[in-house]
Amino acid sequence: MKVFKFGGASVSSTERIQQVAHILKSYQGEELLIVISAMGKTTNALEKVVEAFYDNKKDEALQLFEAIKHAHITTSKYLLVKNFNETLDRLTDFFTEVEWLLHDKPVQGFDYYYDQVVCIGELLSTVIVSAYLNEVGFSNHWVDVRDIIRTDDNFRDANIDWHYSSGKAENVVVPLLKEHKVIITQGFIGSTDEMESTTLGREGSDYTAAVFANLLNAEGQYIWKDVEGVMNADPKLFPDAQLLSELNYDEVIEMAYYGAQVIHPKTIKPLQNKGIPLYVKCFLDKELPGTVIHKKSLKGLPPIVVLKQNQALIQLHSLDFSFVGEKPVADLYQLLADSKIKPNLMQTGAVTIQVCLDNQTEKIEKLALAAAGIFDVQVETGLTLLTIRHYTQEVLQKMIAGKTVELLQQTPETVQVVLK
Ligand code: ASP
Ligand code: MG
After folding, report:
1. Which residues, judged by CB distance below 6 Å to any ligand atom, belong to the binding site of ligand 1?
2. DSSP codes joined into one string, 237-296
């Protein structure tokens, strides 16, 4: 069997949902588990609903939710004829669940409500897509993933209970696959042992698909994206970016670590553990070969460029000009952990430490304040962090030409530069 994943952009309009059906035609008769995200920007819109609710702005929350309902009903009307009424009933059940909650006053933590509301996006999209595919003759069975994927109650970043979920995959999903061949289910969400909904972190649907691929010993995971495959640079910024037709797990983990937005970073491990290949395929042209990510060791990869915009560089200078020894470094690490800051790059010199990180004003101010007892602190913002894997001097020089280099760090494999 194969696991497919269609992201929000692949189900963002009626035309796109029709394109999903067109892609699936090539796989007619195969056993498929299809993981789907919320439509388009629905997750962002639902986040606004929870924020308003938690701010005690009930009317605003309900109003924002009304727009989400409307969008989903409109999409269903365009796509469905025979299955419209039944689908509307199912959507309405989900709408009602959220509305009940929105009528209450918040008494629990924000993250709890976030998950109860935001999970609806995936439930709505899968109900509609499943009904549409059934209507056009691609018969499939809809599964509520919350009955299968069990997590802890670390809301918004829940951890999977592999033991329980694996039992469910075996006892529920495998027989359903035998019976129906095609299962449609939600990415990104799960549920606790008390049947509370949870989410796995933004963009988590890739990860859900990888979890299923692992549990079901899939022959492959296929992620359908708006790009030709994985490129060696962002084609929007670098028009001569080239397709990487083959990558290995290690390279993709490195790329994700440096900030490439190819695949959700958690996705690789479940696949790597079972040696399951990941295919990144082009949603708009299913005939294109795309990229395969597997175990092979690879030689001769071209330079891979990752840019992280909106960076800040913190310069910490020892107050009395004494060397930056273990103690101040240890203190700094503690401060970073306390402020929940994950540095993208750090460099220690004789009397200074430099930390490059995403520019999150509030966190940086907090850190600067706390560090002021130990260091003289200076913050510079509006910077870019450039990472090149498999770099050559030529590519590096070309990329930094005309810019000011604030910091440069390199290994034989990877160079990182903070640029102004
Ligand atoms: N809908 C979720 C999000 O937008 C999950 C996903 O798309 O993978 O983050
Ligand atoms: Mg998405």
Report:
1. 7-8, 37-38, 43, 121, 187-188, 202-205
2. T-TT--B--EEEHHHHHHHHHTT--SS-GGGHHHHHHHT--EEEEESS-TTS--EEEES-
